[in-house]
Amino acid sequence: MAVELQTQTQSHYDRYPFIEGGENRIAWWRAYLRDFLPDEHIAGRTVIDVGSGIGEISRGLIDRGARLTSLDVSLQSLNRCREINPEATVYHGSALKLPFGDETFDHAISIGVLHHTPDCRQGFHEVARVTAPGGTVVVFLYNFWSVYNPIFQAFKPLKRLIPLDRVPLWMIRTLQPFARTHLGQRLSDDQLRRLLGDKLWTPQATFHSVAQVRRWGAEEGLRMVGRKRFYLGYANVMCFEKDGTLRPESRKVTLRCVRCNSIPMLQDDRGYRCDACQQRYDVDGGIVRCPM
Ligand SMILES: C[S@@+](CC[C@H](N)C(=O)[O-])C[C@H]1O[C@@H](n2cnc3c(N)ncnc32)[C@H](O)[C@@H]1O
Fold this sequence. Notes:
Number of helices: 11
CATH class of the largest domain: Alpha Beta
Radius of gyration: 18 Å
Structural class: alpha/beta
CATH architecture of the largest domain: 3-Layer(aba) Sandwich
Bound molecules: S-adenosylmethionine
CATH superfamily of the largest domain: Vaccinia Virus protein VP39
């Protein structure tokens, strides 16, 4: 069931990658995340963007000196991510089974992703697990206590009836005012359809209160240190610090096999191979392909 849901989500975002807002959106997120991840905190540091999509938020962090790893379940999105972020290391994999060792990244972000997975709590655990002591974790999750939650539930029968590519243009265009106030820009019909795809036609979305996510944080050794309500409160952006002191310098990112949890992974001319179970992680088009 969970595997099937993840496959549906993967196909959905392969067909309708999240809207590309371009320089506007990149600049907006670059500034927005500064409160949680100031320049001096991330320059030269390893940061993972879990569910990077086409990588516009990754771009903003790279511009501020971070050493980025981007991971997503949608290969189409990652192909674009590679173009936008040639400096990043890119993985095709699942947020629910990150192919990395414990505490390997200095900081982690996951913006608008974990609520689309079959198990948001497991995704949160994975993001916390790969973050180093003293590191920062920023997550954006849909708000349980928002009007968007009942709207999403109400649309479920309609989206089963009308596939996204058949939603009439007039309906798509009703999103334009939302796009203009929320994203500060006019979107094309294609972008609006993708926005609708992410907000209402996506196979899975779950909703979470701040209290719930704060509790998850405590269970993972993360302390909530900041939070912002996102656009009319339909989501919360929450910032955590992991217990401990951040190491003085970043370390090389450690890969871990998602099949047998073993380290090390050996590098060869095709990519990587697990030394224990021999599972391959080939690199194709500059993207490391992980089993899911
Ligand atoms: C709304 S988009 C956000 C993309 C990006 N964070 C941004 O804000 O530009 C959601 C992304 O989550 C990805 N996603 C959904 N389920 C995932 C999973 N299990 N593992 C990794 N990525 C996933 C989708 O492919 C999609 O790119």
